[in-house]
């Protein structure tokens, strides 16, 4: 695809204003990529979903596959979305926790370690531990805040700081703590025996003491008593994971000369945006779950695009449906992504009166059958308002994207491709691997 065009300014005295500078918008459908499912007639969720706007973009834009997870790295949203924001995870990734700390405005010293900390439902039976629910039944923000803010004074001090986040997603900072502990993402082990993973925390006695205090405090808490009465899983434990120290990331304005904003509900994406120098925009009703306010995100994106060069919008819902193992819910989430986000953003950009480039992409696979993330190249489509193409019969699916023969092996090169600029990297040091 050609670099974005901008019309030349009129001659001095012509009385006509110069054309507005181009706008760049990225729409990320978290975990949309999948495998064929029998319940969907042998189709993937993208193939089964009704996505007329995405299919239109596939016909008029450049479609292909992009590898967002470097070989050997964990196939999580942290690594994948770092790639999509233009940063090489092999150089910059340190862990999920520091990214979420940035979203909460928690400053990290070089020696500090930040953990993503889930509220989970564990089953304790005869000395064995089972991960019954990685999200404590997608506990509400209010319930989670009551539990975490009540626990925080009991465990915080010179070593630890516990901060509430959104729903089941929270933050634990260990001042001067070690980073080598072997932790497991709870969504990777739903329904499994996690006895060894739980007792691995005993390697760090201070941390294990904190976790046992949490179990005791949560056991008879009013929030959990009420949830049990209502037939909901209790949030009976904390599960720290994804730890790391603060990363070295240069803002996108320094790398590419763009000012931008990020619209997201989950702290991971907000934190990535903060490290990248993007303005964080919160939307009322954006929950990070399948009930999120999708239309509100579209409206916020268009408002931001009036002032910003680059706007990134993230939708968590397809990923959550994948973790639930619900293929039909994933199809519905993708259809909402198409109808309530992609369509209004596309139409709204046309009304701004500026040339624009629109990138729609998924960050990674979240196969329904696995209920967790998986590696593999994922589909993207890049539409240029000044250079529309015409590809007959194309649709935004994994298979159709593969047919184009376009494949980016370095995921962090996709953003510069959108911007029409050569890839840049703030850190020329060797890769970590």
Question: Which key features would you list for this structure?
Answer:
five-stranded antiparallel β-sheet; disordered N terminus; globular; 13 strands; 433 residues; alpha/beta
Write a structural description.
This protein is an alpha/beta fold. The chain folds into 2 domains: 23-93 and 248-419, Alkaline Phosphatase, subunit A (3-Layer(aba) Sandwich), CATH 3.40.720; 113-244, no CATH class. Helices cover 34% and strands 19% of the residues. It is built from 16 helices and 13 strands. The chain has helices at residues 45-48, 52-60, 77-84, 89-92, 96-103, 141-155, 195-199, 205-219, 222-229, 252-256, 267-275, 294-305, 317-324, 327-351, 398-403, 414-419, and strands spanning 23-29, 62-66, 113-125, 128-133, 160-166, 169-174, 237-244, 260-263, 279-281, 310-315, 356-362, 378-384, 407-408. An 8-stranded mixed beta sheet has the order 9-8-10-1-11-12-2-13, with helices on both faces. Strands 3, 4, 5, 6 and 7 form a 5-stranded antiparallel beta sheet that branches. Strand 3 and strand 4 form a beta hairpin. It is globular, with a radius of gyration of 22 Å. The protein starts with 22 loop residues before the first strand and ends in a 14-residue tail after the last helix. Residues 23-387 form the Metalloenzyme domain. Catalyzes the interconversion of 2-phosphoglycerate and 3-phosphoglycerate. InterPro entries: Alkaline_phosphatase_core_sf, ApgAM_prokaryotes, Metalloenzyme, Pglycerate_mutase_ApgM. Pathway: Carbohydrate degradation. Its EC number is 5.4.2.12.
